[in-house]
Design goal:
Layout lengths: L1 E3 L4 E5 L2 E5 L10 H9 L3 E3 L2 H7 L5 H5 L3 H9 L11 H24 L15
Antiparallel strand pairs: 1-4, 2-3
Length: 126
């Protein structure tokens, strides 16, 4: 998986060339082509952990760009298991549903008005 860092890369998507720039998220293409773009200084290698740290929003388009092996690896970061025989589109939707639920849970926690209980050292048990 790579992220374009310089210029524009033409990616074929549904029979149309789409321009990918540094403003787009990571893409997954043929490993040999990824290596070539990295060596030319056009792209840099990106790992799933880097994506999560950057706060990159995982979209269906991003997941659709991954092959099944990459999807399995990505999903394993969230303990999502691939069931043999599952179609890629169904697996992508399972991942998106999981991520949506996680995002909702984080929002609820952030919106919570309940304050964390304070600690008074004088109340400590001795």
């Amino acid at each position: 998986m790579i992220k374009i860092i310089k210029g524009t890369f033409g990616l074929y998507k549904d029979g149309v060339v789409v321009g990918i720039t540094k403003d787009n998220g990571p893409i997954s293409i043929d490993p040999e082509r990824e290596k070539e773009l990295i060596e030319l200084g056009i792209a840099e290698m990106v790992h799933d952990a880097d994506i999560m740290e950057e706060g990159f929003e995982i979209s269906q388009e991003y997941l659709d760009g991954l092959n099944l092996t990459q999807l399995k690896e990505f999903a394993s970061n969230f303990d999502i298991k691939y069931k043999a025989g599952t179609k890629k589109t169904v697996f992508v939707q399972e991942i998106l549903d999981f991520l949506d639920k996680e995002a909702e849970a984080h929002e609820k926690i952030a919106e919570s008005d309940e304050e964390t209980p304070g600690f008074d050292p004088e109340d400590a048990v001795q």
